[in-house]
User: Fold this.
Amino acid sequence: MQLMKRRIAISLITIFIFITSAALQFTTSARSTAAISEPTEVTLRVPEGVLERAQTEGGTHVSWDQSSNTTSDTWSWQNRNWLFGPSPKYEIYYDNGSLVGEDDFLPKGEPVQFKVIVPKNIFIDDGDLQGVNINGWYVSPDQNFSAGFNLDWNKDGWWNVYTSSANYSSYEYDFLGQWLTIDETAIDNSSIATEYIVTFVVTFGANTPVGFYHLDIWA
Assistant:
């Protein structure tokens, strides 16, 4: 840092304002000319990094720097799952006994059969099957509507069906009523030497929301 005899230099971050006089007087008239005093010389302590600039006669010189930047990111990920050992499985059948394929649709107004098969070697220490739950869940592509159903059975002979619906735009819930029924005369719980078999026979009503449902089986 040195004391230097220079004309007035004022630095404000990246904006540099150079004033040719010690004071400027401006009038309020839109057409009047500002009176500018003669340049004077003063001694300033000039900060490091501030460059001396030539004065502009009769006015103020302002300069600044402008920059812009655009950044884009890309990423990828991978998820893998491995299943070891025995696990429950399910099968769905039409009323005529034919198996529902992965690309098939379930009908409304006709009985369909959900068969859950649980291998007995899943259980250890003489454990056995306590119950089965089937959960189906649908969410519309715009995320404004969802619907779900639950089928439950436990070893005490209790069977249950439950449905739900929600419209998040209008804040309506369960406005469709019960849209799935269970046939308690056709349901079955049986077992063979190697597995348990629990069968639900249900009918989807005309008010059932149409869409692709995610299905989970709990046993």
About this structure: Confidence is low (pLDDT under 50) at residues 1-37. The radius of gyration is 40 Å.
